Amino acid sequence: MSRIRLLPETVASQVAAGEVVERPASVVKELVENSIDADAHKIDILIRRGGISFVRVIDDGSGMDRDDALLSLERHATSKIRSASDLEAIGTLGFRGEALPSIASVSRFRLTTREAGAVAGTEIIINGGKIDIVREGGEAPGTQVEVRSLFYNLPARRKFLRSENTESRNIEHQIHLQAIGHPRIAFTFMRDDRLVLQLPVAANLNDRIRDLYGSEMLERLLEVNGEASDNIDIGGLIGRAGVSRQTRDQQLTFVNGRAIESPVLNAALREGYHTGLMKGQYSITFLFLNIDPTAVDVNVHPAKREVRFRDPKGVREAVVRSIRQTLERGRETWREKFSAPTLVSPEAPGQPVADLTLRPPVSFPEVTHRELSGLGRVVGDRGYSAVGLVPPSVVAPNRDEVVAGAADPGRARQPISSTAANSQQFQIIGVLNKLYVLMENADGLVLVDQHAAHERILFEELRGRMEEQGVPTQRLLIPQTFDLPPRDADWIERNMSILQIMGIGIERFGPNTFKIDSLPAFLNTSDPVHFMQRVIDDLKSSSASSSPMRLGEEMIAKTVCRHAVKANDPLRYLEIEKLIQDLLACDLPYCCPHGRPTMIQISHTELEKKFGRKA
Ligand code: ADP
Ligand code: MG
Fold first, then answer.
1. Is the C-beta atom of 581 inside 6 A of ligand 1?
2. Helix 24-37 to helix 164-181 angle, to the nearest 10 degrees?
3. Which residue's CA is the closest to the ligand 1 atom numbered 25?
4. What are the distances in angstroms from CA 526 to CA 222, 531, 560?
5. Cβ of 437 less than 6 Å from ligand 1
6. What is the C-alpha separation between 27 and 100, in angstroms, rounded?
7. Which atom of ligand 1 lies nearest, measured to the CA of 102?
């Protein structure tokens, strides 16, 4: 007896629905995408009880005639592609022709639609996939879909739904995604008869973000302008370095207008931010990639959340590059704040306000580069210089290999140019709690975490040296040999030259045995073998997506923390001034290599608001 049977159409739809319609938020996603594809200018969404009991989406888009309305509910019926070759370049959000029949097969479904100019519209009512009513309806031009009692005929599915609150929040997130992806469309969102969102048509992404999250959010973002590469156009808004969140909720990526989740892009974001983010934190990004549609496959997942890039490496590199450039450009706005003159009092124009601030008796408004360079020695005693990083406990200096700059504070790399030093305008007010330097700049009050600031300076200085000539090394008194499992041995073998640049002198001594005879000079370790093991573990786990130099950077970032001036180290005025100037000369001055902020700006406006001088 034959056992194979063709499934009835409604059952097949319910099976497909399992993939397309996971939860109420998927219903909202599919319906809103259809409205966007229909060129709607306004989309109104209403849900009740987490969307489980009711979802309604109304648009003012193209609408459908009666025949199309009926056809739209058939499986694999779509107006968006015609042949398999169209799959290679998809320009619409939908294309699978699955959403409407899937949703209609697992709910009580009502569609009304009307084309502009048509005398009448069409109304179709379907219950659990079975068409019950088709008749003329008189709604406004556009389309309205109502979905009641989702999964009423699939109790197993219904059990998997979360609380109404959670489902509502998923829906709201989904609407945010669509609204951000399409600023020129107006959206409203009602939840249980309460108006949650009312977004007018926005001229651009900035306005949409302001309407959604307020202007304070906008101030923390930088505009990406992508000169990334010929075939990828990258734009959007991303958080400044140091601006981060504990979840990925606001790390949003769009490819050709479609919100997608992509491990390739996530890795690229992490790499692009690199030291601009704290461990375990996520950037805030509204990143838009426009790629030739033939270079990206969206037909990967029924819910169309994922894409496959034809050239993932090229995409990653382009994203990393534009994130970097954007973050570094963000530094310029900081610089501007520090190069404009501080507030002047009306009585004495041109003179900094001096009366009420507790400045130290000696003030050095114009420290020149020459004066500063001599400071290396002074601050070196305090530990504020690279020289403080050489604690040769188990290592003995090897004259040939120690790079001069490391041992000679006077020759330590001076990152600031004299013009930069002269054009920087800030007044140091004092130090709070032996940790926070209080300063005034053109914009208002600035607080600097002296430890974080010093970490950033040391980090960039060491990284600069590593890139130029390799990390200075010191020979071990007694070279040590150690064995490694075959895979680690293989890894070392392949990365020998990078390790060398990082200041680690290592060579093969036997099949799986290595000899280590020198270590980075700034390192303070009594157990080189243990250190090596840690380096291998750390670097192996990070190397998959990173560039070789990144490995060295990570090692440096880990070490500088221990060597930077501590919270309780009292610094002298001159040292503080030099610290700030060095910090401002850094590539990413506003966060430490672990991504914590180094400076916090409190603007005059914020102060005025706090004191009730301004609304
Ligand atoms: P897909 O979007 O993948 O084509 P759907 O099942 O979501 O498949 O929709 C089927 C078809 O119904 C669409 O191709 C479109 O022509 C039509 N359609 C769906 N929703 C709307 C709408 N809101 N306005 C106009 N046409 C619509
Ligand atoms: Mg669709």
1. no
2. 20
3. 63
4. 44, 9, 17
5. no
6. 9
7. 6
Taking CA atoms only, the protein residue closest to ligand 1 atom 7 is 99
591 closest CA partner among 269, 217, 279, 316: 279
Per-residue pLDDT tens for 419-432? 334 456 788 898 89
The H-or-E segment that residue 491 falls in is: helix 486-501
State whether the beta carbon of 505 lies less than 6 angstroms from ligand 1. Answer: no
Q: Which ligand is nearest to the CA of 100?
A: 1
Query: In DSSP terms, which residues pair with 232 in a beta bridge?
Result: 291
Task: State pLDDT tens for residues 89-127.
Answer: 888 888 888 899 999 999 999 999 999 999 899 999 999
DSSP conformational letter for 565: P
In the reported structure, the alpha carbon of residue 60 is separated from the centroid of ligand 2 by a whole-number distance in angstroms of: 16
> In the structure encoding, which two tokens stand for residue 386, read together?
């690279």
Structure-block tokens of residue 537:
């573990």
Output phi, psi for 476, to 5 deg.
Answer: -75, 145
Tell me, in angstroms, the distance from the centre of ligand 1 to residue 21's CA: 15
Which atom of ligand 1 is closest in space to residue 98's alpha carbon?
A: 6
35 lines ligand 1 (CB under 6 A): yes
Ligand closest to Cα of 57 equals: 1
| Amino acid code (one letter) for 601 | Q
Q: Are 121 and 62 in contact (CB under 8 A)?
A: no
Bigger pLDDT: 514 or 568? 514
**DSSP-derived secondary structure letter, 138:** -
Atom index in ligand 1 nearest the CA of residue 77 equals 10
* pLDDT category of residue 343 using cuts at 50, 70 and 90: low
Q: Ligand 2 centre from 34 Cα, in Å?
A: 5
Ligand 1 atom having least distance to the Cα of 100: 6
* Ligand 1: residue whose CA is nearest its atom 19: 34
Contact 162, 171 (CB under 8 A): no
User: What is the structure's pLDDT at 364?
Assistant: 29
Is the CB of 153 within 6 Å of ligand 1?
Answer: no
**By three-state DSSP, how is residue 513 classified?**
strand
Across the beta sheet with 505-508, what order do the strands follow? Answer: 395-396, 473-483, 513-520, 505-508
| pLDDT value at residue 228 | 60
332, with CB counted inside 10 A (0-12, 13-18, 19+), is: exposed
